[in-house]
Write a structure and sequence with these properties.
By secondary structure, this protein is mostly helical. The protein has a single domain, classed as Ferritin, core subunit, four-helix bundle (Ferritin), CATH 1.20.1260. The chain contains four helices and no strands. Helix 1 runs antiparallel to helix 2, helix 2 packs antiparallel against helix 4 and helix 3 runs antiparallel to helix 4. The protein is elongated, with a radius of gyration of 17 Å. The termini are far apart. Bound molecules: fe (ii) ion (2 copies).
Length: 157
């Protein structure tokens, strides 16, 4: 299926990196969808809550693809936690910082899928197809939260 082992391993590594990011996103979306307070937070909390199952499904689809191309899905102790911008804010009414954190996380996810799309070109179209679909989902999430940011910054300004 792959012309050499290093190509296969590179794709497994990229899939694993995106898998790790999706799992971390799930954890942080749960936390932020619960922690925020106030009337202005309600819509953001609901939007995050409804995205959790979609991000979880992304993680599951990546995991299945890792297995299919003979990789091993890592357990929790092999994962890394890097989403600094999505950590719940100290001020629980700070909706704007959560919105900005979500946009940053979605942009990172988009970049991760871009790396997979490029690495699989001419090599593994099934993985590429998956990455294209997930990248499209993240672009929609990003755009939704860009819209929220516009509105919330207008209210503040
Ligand atoms: Fe995702
Ligand atoms: Fe997303």
């Amino acid at each position: 299926m792959f012309k050499d082992e290093s190509t296969r391993k590179k794709i497994v590594d990229l899939l694993t990196k995106s898998y790790n990011a999706e799992i971390e996103t799930v954890a942080n979306y749960i936390a932020n969808s619960v922690n925020l307070d106030g009337v202005r937070a309600q819509h953001i909390k609901a939007a995050l809550e409804s995205d959790i199952s979609e991000e979880l499904e992304h993680a599951q689809r990546l995991a299945r693809r890792i297995k299919t191309i003979d990789g091993v899905v890592p357990g929790s102790q092999a994962l890394q936690w890097t989403q600094t911008s999505l950590q719940p804010p100290k001020q629980t009414t700070d909706v704007v910082s959560v919105i900005k954190g979500v946009i940053a996380a979605e942009e990172e996810a988009i970049e991760g899928y871009q790396a997979i799309i490029e690495a699989t070109e001419g090599v593994d179209y099934v993985t590429q197809d998956l990455a294209i679909e997930l990248q499209g989902d993240e672009q929609e999430h990003r755009r939704e939260f860009i819209g929220f940011l516009k509105e919330y910054e207008q209210v503040n300004g």
